Amino acid sequence: MTDRRPWRGVSFDAVGKFRRINWLYVLLLCLLAGVGYTALYSAGGGPEPFATRHGVRFALGLVLMLAIAMVDIRFIARLAWPAWLGCAVLLLLVLRMGHVGKGAERWLELGGLQLQPSELMKLALVLALAAWFHRASWERMGNPLFLIPPLLAVLIPVGLILKEPNLGTAAITAILGAAVFFAAGVRWWKFLLVALPIPFLAEFAYAHMHDYQRARIDTFLHPESDPLGAGYNIIQSKIALGSGGLWGKGFLQGTQGHLDFLPEKQTDFIFTMIGEEFGLVGGLVVMGLLCLIILGGMLIAIRCRNQFGRLVALGISCNFFLYVFVNIAMVMGVIPVGGVPLPLVSHGGSAMLTVMVGFGVLMSVHVHRDVVFAMRDAV
User: Fold this and answer.
1) Three-state secondary structure call for residue 61
2) Does residue 301 belong to any structural domain of this protein?
3) pTM of this structure
4) Burial of 135 (0-12, 13-18, 19+ CB in 10 A)
5) Contact criterion met (CB below 8 Å) for 235 and 298
6) Quick check: 69 and 17 in contact, CB under 8 A?
7) CA-to-CA distance for 359 and 296, rounded, in angstroms?
8) What is the pLDDT of residues 110-141, one digit of tens each?
């Protein structure tokens, strides 16, 4: 008989859980990581310095993901608010002793690892909001006082991330929180009340931005005004994407990337490398793979029988979608340039860790999709 005690974290039916893992979804993640290895191999001109590290990090992340998939979903629900609190403390530490990069304090140095707490907070926020709304009836959802704690759970990390300052991640965190609110059943007119002041505050916010943030917006609107300065990155990105044509220049044949015209080719602009070497067809194939991963996460949410798992799966899928949308739209010049990597493709340990932990929780939702529980059973 399966041990269903949540305090154990993992039941004794480990073999049964292992069989319930969605191995097709795992295969999709491995294919995407393979795309990343190929692109990083080209970006570095060989397995070093990017591709080998990427492969090792993904392998370790895959083991971590499968381990988290075995953890009882009720135990994860129990950890939701402590995880949120821990990430909030890390965000406070960033403001006091964070590592400065690109004009902002965003990282904590932990041994040889640079940890970006704002990325972990997005996952913790999804868990905390899902735990809160899991116990909500329709009557309680209609009570504005019931929405104050989860609203504060969104606004506090958004405010701390803005202080770093990291406008892009703060905006993504706010959108992610709004998505979970909407999925939980919060009425649309309440979103409208919150959104109404935003256009009137835009000019005030622009006036109080840091110089580099205003430069990103100005460059987005008029990139040709400073082609060798602020507009250089996006201009080179568009040139590289356009030069790839329909089928691309071929693997290791990209001129913009290999002649170092393309900046940050291993991180923020990795999709540009793919577009230059594999063309429009290659870019569409990668985007199709990304869409399958997002839709797979949505399907896991639909098939889950408990509200906590549904909201967690939707939130994690939405977070992955926001990563993908912001990165690809950024390199195409559709939105201002910001430091958002393409998950499982870009080089970076902190982003890989966060994404794989998130997919581990998503897989736990799938494995425990038939578990029905009240929050008192989890806590």
Assistant:
1) helix
2) yes
3) 0.89
4) middle
5) no
6) yes
7) 11
8) 666 678 889 999 999 999 999 999 877 777 77
> Do 173 and 154 touch, CB atoms closer than 8 A?
yes
User: Can you give the residue range of the structural domain that contains 63?
Assistant: 6-378
Using CA atoms, how far apart are residues 115 and 203, in angstroms rounded to an integer? 33
As a whole number, mean pLDDT of residues 225-254 equals 83
Strand order in the sheet with 113-115: 99-101, 104-110, 113-115
Both ends of the chain: CA-CA distance in Å? Answer: 23
Q: What 3-state DSSP class applies to 105? A: strand
- Banded pLDDT at 6 (limits 50, 70, 90): very low
| Residue ranges with strand state E in 26-137 | 99-101, 104-110, 113-115
Name the token pair of 93. Answer: 């530490």
Residue 216, domain member (yes or no):
yes
Pair of tokens at residue 304: 């889950």
Q: 191 in a domain, yes or no?
A: yes
From the number of C-beta atoms within 10 Å of its C-beta (0-12, 13-18, 19+), residue 73 rates as buried
The number of domains in the chain is 1
Contact 315, 129 (CB under 8 A): yes
1 found inside a domain: no
CA dist 145 → 127, 153, 156, 176, 228 (Å): 20, 14, 17, 21, 52
Q: How confident is the model at residue 231, as a pLDDT?
A: 75
